[in-house]
Design goal:
alpha/beta; Rossmann fold; binds pyrazine-2-carboxylic acid; 6-stranded parallel beta sheet; binds zinc ion; globular
């Protein structure tokens, strides 16, 4: 575990949870674990960063306009809000992605704060040397974000029990996990991550 890990919470929004426009099976089942991780990082003074899918009504990302998906996470709608059970501490960094109607993007590294800052520069500013990733969906945004971080040389740990996949094709999530692993991501149960974090940061 690095000296200064950040927790990256990916797209835990109503539309990606059961009952939402693009509900991930059991997507909401991870929220309690995610909340525990958020509390742990916050207590240790480590950054917690949230991403959200944040689409315009018309975008090439949606089936109707040539993409793969039903309309979801449309800016300002209830479906785009974070799930009500998700703890988003005041002052947390929130980055939005998918705003460009011409671009079909999934990675958190294509997300921006409301001041237009991208994830890479935000993490750099925070002095982050490792990303701990959890959230939705394993086979899309979690996968793309983890691979992008690794490509940039940033170590990645994925909370295995705090991600869930869409699995448009059965097995997609399993393949995505393998890809992340092959590119250098480590996987931990969130309970184990808590212990690693305590060890890495135990006071002198
Ligand atoms: C996502 C499908 C469509 C994701 C976003 O955040 O994983 N998946 N848009
Ligand atoms: Zn989307």
């Amino acid at each position: 575990m690095g000296k200064r890990a950040a927790l990256l919470v990916v797209d835990i929004q109503n539309d990606f949870c059961p009952g939402g426009a693009l509900g991930v099976p059991d997507g909401d089942a991870i929220i309690a674990r995610v909340n525990r991780a958020v509390a742990l990082f916050t207590r240790r003074g480590l950054p917690v960063v949230f991403t959200r899918d944040w689409h315009p009504r018309v975008t090439k990302h949606f089936k109707e306009f040539g993409g793969a998906w039903p309309p979801h996470c449309i800016q300002g709608t209830k479906g785009a809000r974070f799930h009500p059970d998700l703890d988003v501490p005041k002052g947390s960094l929130v980055l939005s992605k998918g705003m460009d109607p011409e671009v079909d993007s999934y990675s958190g590294f294509q997300a921006f704060t409301d001041r237009g800052r991208d994830l890479e520069s935000a993490l750099h500013e925070l002095g982050v040397d490792e990303l701990v990733i959890c959230g939705l969906a394993t086979d899309y945004c979690v996968r793309a974000t983890a691979l992008d971080a690794l490509r940039r040389g940033m170590p990645v740990r994925v909370l295995r029990d705090a991600i869930r996949g869409v699995d448009l094709k059965p097995g997609d999530s399993e393949i995505a996990e393998k890809e992340m692993r092959v590119h250098g991501a480590r996987f931990s149960e969130s309970r184990v991550m808590a212990r690693l974090l305590a060890k890495a940061r135990s006071p002198p």
